[in-house]
Amino acid sequence: MSGDTLCALEAQDIEAGYGGIVALHGVSLHVGAREIVTVIGPNGAGKTTLLRAISGLVPLRRGRVSLDGSDVTGQSTEALVRRGLVHVPERRQLFADLTVEENLRLGAYTRYRHEPEAVERDFERVLELFPILRERRRQRAGTLSGGEQQMLAIGRGLMSSARVLLLDEPSLGLAPLITRQIFDTIAQLRGQGIAVLLVEQNARQALRVVDRGYVLINGRIVLSGTAEELMASRLVQQVYLGALPESGRELEGVAPDPEQPEM
To answer: What does CATH list as the number for 7-84+163-241?
Structure first.
């Protein structure tokens, strides 16, 4: 683990799903303080469900979630936000008719009464992180480009005083150059003391900036390792190219995660 050894976020043996469908089968992972970790895998692997289960949007059928060593299993999404666990969802979900500044300030709605000065500091920090948002601060969010909207979504999450940020497909629908800029900014969050769990289909870009990663297939983690190990793995190359072996066992360079069930 890079950076501090403190575990900022830990999920243990998570099982979750929708109705009669189980989407996650005993998933365990952890994110260290100041660490950026990715979960990659094909469409339908359960990546989005994993983030929703951790952030309280999908109830757990089994398992445990810990934040900074404290058990937060079953707590509401709002309670988790107050504790510093913030979920930036897929497709951004901004308030299109509100301005950039209004969207950002809504991210801090739980904080204004108790720490208004800290909110203003974080507002300036977000504008420094995303200078284009300072230029667009009076512009309606719905008129921004896709890349600018993604920056705004991340910035809104940071305004909640996030210590652990869950990012769901931040590159979705973005041009390659903009995608690279987004990931370069995500890499900067490490230096601000923020832990990041990143779900992403663009494995190549994700592994360029993260410390470690997990490969999720059919609701099970079948592989984990450092970014360098995963990039060299034959399985990751096959997932990235969309030609996944049926068995999921063709693992080069990294052994399967001993804490996870094999496929």
So the answer is: 3.40.50.300
